[in-house]
């Protein structure tokens, strides 16, 4: 179990090494090199942060970066933690609580996801308007950490409406025409969903499915952060096309779209 003291200790190690931040960004698959945009960038390896998990997912490097971006102090996580790696849920969300202690007020969560909405294409960027927790897990299970927030946090605006509007506005200004909005549904993974699960997801109102982001969203809402979520649709979800799902397709599309994804995030951070 992750204790409050462990979160304080990890935050202190990061503060000493790389300093505080007002905006936090979790970089999903393919976006890791966005850290190049930071000025005066410093990093600490996850393995040097006491009690911190270490990424095992391919393409997730395991470094915490802090620097300046458009005059704001921004920290970026190059590598995130997924429940499917075997981490307890409180370990998966530990970084978000660490960010809270380091002064982060706005959290940007990015990920790769499968498109359920048949009007999406691989390469669509989806701004999250809401999410569905279909994992049967919740990172707030267990004694409430009163230092962070209430036992029963509100999730009516899991993704801040003003950030959704800001991000959409920047997409329009940039003339990026692959940006859509939608609902993200969290499946635990690590296997991809079955076609029947994707039909269920569609009936539930999901536009995309993925294996991350929702735990971080829940904990960020619990501790009063504003959240922006953006998915890169890397593939159509299972059963939509007559082809098998493969991680190499996810990586290939994430890499193809990353410069557009970066521009959108960059413009949104500049406008915050
Ligand atoms: N399902 C779940 N997670 C994913 C997918 C998918 O189809 N694509 C990328 N991440």
User: In which range does the helix fraction lie?
Assistant: 25-40%
Bound molecules: hypoxanthine
Per the CATH scheme, the topology name is Rossmann fold
Count every beta strand, where a strand is a DSSP E run of 2 or more residues.
9
Please state the second-level CATH architecture.
3-Layer(aba) Sandwich
Look at the structure and give the mean pLDDT. 95
Secondary structure class reads: alpha/beta
Task: Tell me the β content.
Answer: 15-25%
Summarize the helix and strand pattern as letters.
HEEEEHHEEHEHEHEH
List the uncertain runs: none
Q: Give the helix tally.
A: 7
The CATH class assignment is Alpha Beta
**CA-based gyration radius:** 17 Å
> How many discrete domains?
1
Would you identify the CATH H-level superfamily?
Nucleoside phosphorylase domain
CA-CA gap between termini: 35 Å
């Amino acid at each position: 179990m992750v204790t409050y003291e462990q979160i304080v200790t990890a935050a202190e190690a990061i503060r000493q090494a790389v300093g505080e931040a007002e905006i936090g960004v979790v970089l999903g698959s393919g976006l890791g090199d966005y850290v190049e945009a930071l000025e005066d960038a410093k990093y600490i390896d996850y393995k040097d942060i006491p009690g911190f998990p270490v990424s095992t997912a391919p393409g997730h490097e395991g470094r915490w970066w802090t620097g300046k971006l458009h005059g704001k102090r921004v920290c970026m996580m190059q590598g995130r933690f997924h429940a499917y790696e075997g981490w307890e849920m409180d370990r998966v969300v530990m970084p978000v609580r660490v960010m809270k202690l380091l002064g982060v007020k706005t959290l940007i969560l990015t990920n790769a996801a499968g498109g359920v909405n048949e009007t999406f294409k691989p390469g669509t960027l989806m701004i999250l308007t809401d999410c569905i927790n279909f994992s049967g897990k919740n990172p707030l299970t267990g004694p409430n950490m009163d230092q962070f927030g209430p036992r029963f946090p509100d999730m009516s605006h899991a993704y801040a409406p003003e950030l959704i509007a800001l991000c959409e506005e920047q997409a329009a200004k940039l003339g990026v025409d692959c940006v859509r909005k939608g609902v993200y549904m969290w499946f635990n993974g690590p296997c991809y969903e079955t076609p029947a699960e994707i039909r269920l997801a569609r009936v539930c109102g999901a536009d995309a499915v993925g294996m991350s982001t929702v735990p971080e969203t829940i904990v960020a809402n619990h501790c009063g952060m504003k959240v922006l979520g953006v998915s890169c649709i890397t593939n159509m979800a299972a059963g939509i096309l007559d082809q098998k799902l493969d991680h190499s397709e996810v990586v290939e599309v994430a890499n193809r779209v990353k410069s557009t994804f970066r521009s959108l995030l960059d413009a949104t951070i500049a406008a915050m």
